[in-house]
Every structure is written in structure tokens, then in C-alpha cells.
Write a structure and sequence with these properties.
This protein has nine helices and no strands. It has 174 residues and is an all-alpha fold. The termini are far apart. This is Photosystem I assembly protein Ycf3. It is a peripheral membrane protein. It comes from Vertebrata thuyoides.
Length: 174
Amino acid sequence: MPRLQKNDNFIDKTFTILADIVLKILPTSKEEKEAFYYYRDGMSAQSEGEYAEALENYYEALQLEEDPYDRSYILYNIALIYGSNGEHTKALEYYHQALELNNNLPQALNNIAVIYHYQGIKAIDGKKIKMSKKMFTKAAQYWKQAITLAPNNYIEAQNWLKTTGREYNLEEQL
């Protein structure tokens, strides 16, 4: 089952060795171990731009993984692939599924906001002003949630919120 890595580097090799050792030591079920191997192989394929292979591995991992927290990261990575391939509707579906299992994923909230912001820009290009305002409002809502979870991140989003009059105020969120 282990994937042959084309671009093995020291960090990838070290991670793989350590992960294999930890899996042998930890009292995990056969399914949990298998799910992790698929997840690891998916991450490796994804980092090499082999998105179809990565998706196959992630879907296999989802079939085996039962832990909601771990499933959230599998779903998040699936969303990343769909988003990078321009399949924004599918990406949004998977980001939302990930957030249902783990509401502490500011990176998913940020990526949702990025998609809505992009859709807002596309709406402006198409002279659909009402739609653009709606998409920008959604982007602002998700960026505010992401910033609440990670206040020192997403500086560009914070600046966008300020410059567009949707200023983010941490005290208001608390």
C-alpha cells in the first residue's frame, strides 16, 4: 500500500519513518492504521500535484477513518484539491463538512472566504453588482470567523475588511 514517492526528501522520509514507528507503537485498530496510510499517501500525492491519486487515497481514508477530528482534515484536504482545480461548489461542500466535524479550522473558514471573494470579483466583471455585494458579504462573514479563531493570521483579509468598511473588531466578536 505505501506510495512510492518520486520526490523523496529528507523531511518526507523522516516523517514517514516516524509515522510508521508511532503507528506500530500506538494501540490503534487495523482500520485506523490503514486510514492513516491512505491519508499520508494522499498528502504525498497532493504535494506532488497528483490530485487524482490524492483524491483516491483521501476517499479510501474516509471509508476507514472513524474519528471526527481526523475525518475533518481528510475532508479539508479534499476541499483544497477541488478548490485548486476551480471546482468551487465541491470545495465549499467539503469545507463545510470539515467544519461540521471540527469547528476549529480557521484555514477552512479562510478558504471559504477566498472562494466567495473570488466569486464577488467575477460578479463585478459580469456587471452583477447585487451578486457581488452578496458574495463580498459572505466573504467578510467567513473571514471574521477565521480571524476570531486565529487573530494573528489573515492580515490581508483584515486589511480588506478595513478598506471595504467591514472592519473587524475582535472585542465585538467576543
